[in-house]
Amino acid sequence: MANRRSKPKTRLKVIALGGLEEIGKNMTVLEYGNDIIIIDCGLAFPEDDMLGIDLVIPDITYLAKNVEKIRGIVLTHGHEDHIGALPYVLKQLKVPVFGTLLTLGLLENKLREHKMLDKTTLHTVVPGEKVKLGEMVVEFIHTNHSIADSVALAIQTPVGMVIHTGDFKVDYTPIDGDIIDLQRFAELGSQGVLLLMSDSTNAERKGFTMSEKNVGKVFERIFEETPRNRIMVATFSSNIHRIQQIINAAYMYGRKVAIIGRSMVNAVKTASELDYLWVPPRTLIDINEIKNYRDEQLVIITTGSQGETMSALSRIANSEHKQVSVKPDDKIIISASAIPGNEKNVIRVVNELLKKGADVVYGGIEDIHVSGHARQEELKLMLALTKPKFFMPVHGEYMHLSSHRDLAISMGMDKKNIFVNKLGDVLELSKNEAKVTGTVPTGQVMVDGLGVGDVGNIVLRDRKHLSEDGLMVVVVSMEEETGQIVAGPDIISRGFVYVRESEGLMDGAREVVMKALQECEEKNITSWNYIKNLIKDTLKNYIWQKTKRSPMILPIIMEV
Amino acid sequence: MANRRSKPKTRLKVIALGGLEEIGKNMTVLEYGNDIIIIDCGLAFPEDDMLGIDLVIPDITYLAKNVEKIRGIVLTHGHEDHIGALPYVLKQLKVPVFGTLLTLGLLENKLREHKMLDKTTLHTVVPGEKVKLGEMVVEFIHTNHSIADSVALAIQTPVGMVIHTGDFKVDYTPIDGDIIDLQRFAELGSQGVLLLMSDSTNAERKGFTMSEKNVGKVFERIFEETPRNRIMVATFSSNIHRIQQIINAAYMYGRKVAIIGRSMVNAVKTASELDYLWVPPRTLIDINEIKNYRDEQLVIITTGSQGETMSALSRIANSEHKQVSVKPDDKIIISASAIPGNEKNVIRVVNELLKKGADVVYGGIEDIHVSGHARQEELKLMLALTKPKFFMPVHGEYMHLSSHRDLAISMGMDKKNIFVNKLGDVLELSKNEAKVTGTVPTGQVMVDGLGVGDVGNIVLRDRKHLSEDGLMVVVVSMEEETGQIVAGPDIISRGFVYVRESEGLMDGAREVVMKALQECEEKNITSWNYIKNLIKDTLKNYIWQKTKRSPMILPIIMEV
């Protein structure tokens, strides 16, 4: 990237390091001259082929190279795909972090787990507040989302105003009382917005996203219709508004509320402490107390709405939860929709709960969930209020970004002013012009256990090979100088066949390898490379012929 | 299972070996005295945790033990989950197979691949035909489904009439001209039906399943609105009616049709030869001829509607298809809905096609697919027409079977007469009574390459372990009698870390193992079991401490 400071008119650079062509690891960089600000720093969940990987974070090579320019990280809200990578990234970039109270509250929990809390500078902001970061000024604007305390960002740069919506929807009857600050967006729009970056998640969906209050009404109705049975509700632990509504309904119907699932317990604790959750007195009970109450006096709020294996609801479904067992006629509400990829897990949990006699309510049956992301009418509203000169759809798979672009085109925006970018594309803006001028390094950094980035494609490729057909280890001891076989070949397999039932196959394998090795001895071949490759090829062909499988073959020569 | 022939009143036994609490590997056994008939014999696709497995077939232990009783296998239709296990099962059970023309046509292709064709006796039947199998008489009744030539079965037994619907829907405007034979079901219902087994796949969905003709109308509209561009349609190769409508629309708009994808080419060939598909003269062209035509003269029908990795559409999306490349403004229609588990694959393919500039039409946007399975109103119709004494929902996950039961209850059927069974449950019926009296062995037999059933839980567990954290092999050469270390320990890893970047870790690993081994030498421990376990534990603790990962550890001692 050429340093453009020497040129008379510095341009603003906008670079996404995450969140484009994916839903996850959102991270956007704004760079003006000697100042960089980072918007969000999230993680992504591993794809199915990332075997053994715990999570994925953005590649910050570009930022590490320019660390002295970074003025701060500003956060839009506390979801994992916006803050989850911070404990890792902050180890390399020691920069201040700005966010709202709940957002930083959730972040603190993470930093504490990673023993990073005392090494990090956190600044709490409120909607309406402005923070000067170098030559850019960031204003935080209240929005509605499926987590409280979410904000959009209006960043005043010398080149023009940049708005980043964060994740948002328009909720005219929000739970916490404040509609998204449409007036402010309108004001900024009339003053002139250079670039809008907006949430594309639901850009393919027509109409409006329903209000969170709707779900509350459905809960009330279900509670009304279920006077005698225990009620359990699984939902996202980050959706404090949803939890509030469940607690409200419980209170209305004279039920106590118990919370289970580690992330749910933590979220409720943090939100209560920071006053984002109002729990009526004497409503919350500990899970161990539920035996002191009748079924009709209980509501249990739990993790596991995505069928996650170790979640509380999954463990309950598999009769593995220490304190909670399903009773026939329990009313179990799954207050979430399945994120693509999780459908089978949800089906599995629902089946198990039904088998145990529970009455399960989920997406297909009732409106017990609404999205936190704007649909087409709300996205068009945002475009109409802000009237940006240039538009960059963010936060979506290609299909979502593309649909969002089509929306803007349908409203009369010129295709040339809309940028459906790739990660790493450098969008350079001046007062009147915007274009992609180059790229910076980007990528996925995989986290596995304590290791960050040490699992690359070769390791994954090997894991995949091992997972499909297992492994055969062939060990031979050879005399160093003569190449004489001293012991072996011993063949050990794992994940290939059940050896006790396949002795004939293994004996045959040993024979063909022995034969190949003897030929090497006779021809006085001592090159280990040659011998190893011969073992590999011989065994591979034999096994394929017999089984049509290709286990990984690992020849090991011990020199004695 | 006690032989009940000696008792005065023989009971009918109904046993599902597949298709309950799952969608896949459908197989139901009817046993009366010395006669067994088998309804369908399908395969299931492997679950996500069945690493490396190709397909899953039912466990037929019970049938193998009673093979002399088996009078035949009757097939309801030619989908994989109804005929896919036959090439394997027929190797053990050499019994005749009865099915309609297209069903046997598709089966023949499979048997030919497995070199089983000349060893199998196939009898073609037509709807209305009755076949006597021992003391039971099987009548084939025409139904509508997402494949042509599908039938329900009405099995007259000495105890009473049993109806098995197969997979069905009610289509009042079917493509091949014949509405499902409602009159026959009504007739049987008035004569008295002892047991109904009915398709539960869409039992949770309200209303009616739309007619296949609707999709044809949508195609016509899309073709009308796309006068200038090339059109591609991805759909299920087994849905001949869908393919017919695409061909019809192509013909109407003066386009040639090319077929790609092995299973699609085979299906079209088989269906045409058997007159299930009418292809207007000079309409079909070979894929290699497409370059001789302009875009607006072409329709390409392809496999890949589920985003399957090796399918033609996936390869096209990844620019890997030899004859077809995406052109900007290609109209690509995905005429299917994503089966649970396949959503991410479909999203991936759609993204890639959009990026290449294609205009992609899929489920969310247009009604370009209808299900082949009856929804609630049709299922209630079937119950109302047949008025069975006893009811056993089949073909569904637990949630579907359970919903189907609820439907019957809502119509006034007594809960006691409805059986939501598990695989292997033996449902015994007399004229007036039905109850589950025991179980037979059942299970999943996994097919991997040529091996059938030789990959069991241990092998899968090992594959899972290997896939998550990889493997470390520790090889030591020891003198047989003294236990002296002659060479090693050598440590080789795969799928664990990228070794070149982790030399410190591997060196440390070698040291701790060496130390442990030296202690064994000093203490004169020669028990290999002990030494191997010590190596395992020592290394495991070291690696966990350093990386929080648990690779499989394979200690190997070479005796020299």
List keywords for this structure.
Metallo-beta-lactamase, Chain A; nuclease (chains A, B); 3 domains; 6-stranded mixed beta sheet; 24% strand; 560 residues; Rossmann fold; alpha/beta; RNA endonuclease activity (chains A, B); Ubiquitin-like (UB roll); homodimer; 8-stranded mixed beta sheet
What would you say this structure looks like, in words?
The structure is a homodimer of 560-residue chains. With 560 residues, chain A is of the alpha/beta class. In chain A, strand 10 (151-156) and strand 11 (161-164) form a beta hairpin. Chain A folds into 3 domains: 2-207 and 371-435, 4-Layer Sandwich (Metallo-beta-lactamase, Chain A); 212-361, Rossmann fold (3-Layer(aba) Sandwich), CATH 3.40.50; 457-559, Ubiquitin-like (UB roll). Chain A starts with 11 loop residues before the first strand and ends with a strand. Chains A, B: Its main location: cytoplasm. Chains A, B: Its cofactor is Ca(2+); Zn(2+).
Strand order in the largest sheet of chain A: 7-6-5-3-2-1-20-21
Shape of chain A: globular
Mean pLDDT of chain A: 93
Strand content range of chain A: 15-25%
Distance between the termini of chain A: 55 Å
CATH-level-4 superfamily name of the largest domain in chain A? Ribonuclease Z/Hydroxyacylglutathione hydrolase-like
| CATH architecture classification name of the largest domain in chain A | 4-Layer Sandwich
The poorly predicted ranges of chain A are none
Extended strand count of chain A = 26
Query: What's the domain count of chain A?
Result: 3
Q: How many individual helices of chain A?
A: 15
Which fold name fills CATH's third level, the topology of the largest domain in chain A?
Metallo-beta-lactamase, Chain A
Class per helix and strand makeup of chain A: alpha/beta
Largest interface: A-B, 69 and 69 residues
